């Protein structure tokens, strides 16, 4: 029997690296998918150089990861980058100097790359893996969004937009009937400020210490969302949480529900059923 197997994108540094060590300490096998190699060789891990913004890179990585373990139980879609453009800071005031195409890497990596990861995870989690000792098809995904996926950070509009998108993806997919039928669970962790190489130099020394979130809080969030300690149980996925957003801030774990409906009729349950039915019929017509 092969031990439970995980993929961690962005696993060579910061939060991803801490999660890899946490998983290995609990006897998981872990694929580290990153554009950069880890600083040290970690037993029971396999590093696969991957740019998550490239479909081909990710598809090749998932294929290689599955060939290594013949099972996939958990995926942390964690790699992410921050802003690469300054809309208003680059205005020329010259009609003959319109803006250049902006760098939209945060959307390409954080949204598109993560979406690719969900699609590939769903495939490899649901292919038969009984020979490797996995009893039920399915698996769990945790996406690293951010406090910036819940609150605005005015200096980082691209980052905030991309992380809000990830919370939206989790809220929609986590409660989608097809996701549930495939026995896949998907949740989002939203860390506040954690001391990692991603932060601009000098930021940590400018902040009061109680505004820095310990890495242990972020790891507690992963455990709370995906119950990583209890994977041997047959119902591990079936009884797992889904569609949840959990903020890790200081020592606190704070659950965020979608905003309450304050009026309007469109998004009520009956409306949602009609919307789902209409889209299903549209897809069926397109397939004929
Ligand atoms: N540090 C924080 O305060 C904080 C807070 C909230 C959310 N986050 C999120 O946590 C995640 C991890 O960030 P971190 O703070 O650990 O940063 P980090 O820079 O320490 O680690 C990010 C890792 O992702 C890798 N990476 C970057 N682009 C990639 C790509 N296209 N394909 C594959 N790998 C890529 C990097 O090489 C690096 O190893 C990110 O999604 C980040 O937005 C961080």
From TrEMBL:
Q: Name the Pfam families on file.
A: adh_short
Q: Which domain of life is it from?
A: Eukaryota
Question: What GO CC annotations are associated with the protein?
Answer: cytoplasm
Q: Name one GO molecular function term.
A: oxidoreductase activity, acting on the CH-OH group of donors, NAD or NADP as acceptor
Keywords from the UniProt entry: NADP, Oxidoreductase
By sequence similarity, the record places it as follows: Belongs to the short-chain dehydrogenases/reductases (SDR) family.
User: Under which name does UniProt file this protein?
Assistant: Uncharacterized protein
Phylogenetic lineage: Eukaryota, Fungi, Dikarya, Ascomycota, Pezizomycotina
């Amino acid at each position: 029997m092969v031990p439970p197997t995980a993929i961690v994108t962005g696993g060579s540094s910061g939060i991803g690296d801490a999660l890899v060590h946490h998983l290995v300490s609990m006897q998981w096998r872990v694929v580290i998918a990153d554009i950069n190699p880890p600083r040290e060789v970690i037993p029971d891990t396999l590093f696969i150089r991957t740019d998550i913004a490239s479909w081909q890179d990710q598809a090749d990585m998932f294929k290689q990861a599955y060939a290594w373990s013949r099972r996939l139980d958990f995926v942390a879609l964690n790699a992410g980058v921050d802003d690469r453009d300054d809309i208003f800071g680059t205005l020329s005031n010259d009609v003959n100097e319109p803006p250049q195409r902006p760098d939209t890497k945060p959307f390409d990596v954080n949204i598109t790359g993560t979406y690719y990861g969900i699609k590939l995870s769903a495939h490899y989690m649901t292919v038969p893996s009984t020979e490797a000792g996995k009893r039920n098809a399915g698996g769990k995904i945790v996406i690293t969004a951010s406090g910036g996926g819940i609150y605005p950070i005015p200096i980082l509009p691209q980052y905030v937009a991309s992380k809000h998108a990830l919370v939206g993806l989790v809220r929609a997919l986590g409660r989608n009937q097809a996701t549930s039928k495939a026995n896949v669970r998907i949740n989002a962790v939203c860390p506040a400020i954690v001391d990692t190489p991603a932060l601009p130099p000098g930021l940590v020394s400018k902040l009061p210490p109680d505004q820095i979130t310990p890495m242990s809080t972020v790891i507690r969030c992963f455990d709370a969302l995906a119950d990583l300690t209890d994977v041997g149980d047959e119902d591990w996925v079936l009884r797992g949480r889904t569609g949840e957003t959990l903020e890790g801030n200081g020592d606190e774990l704070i659950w965020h529900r979608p905003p309450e409906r304050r009026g309007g009729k469109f998004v009520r349950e009956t409306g949602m059923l009609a919307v789902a039915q209409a889209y299903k019929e549209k897809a069926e017509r397109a397939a004929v």
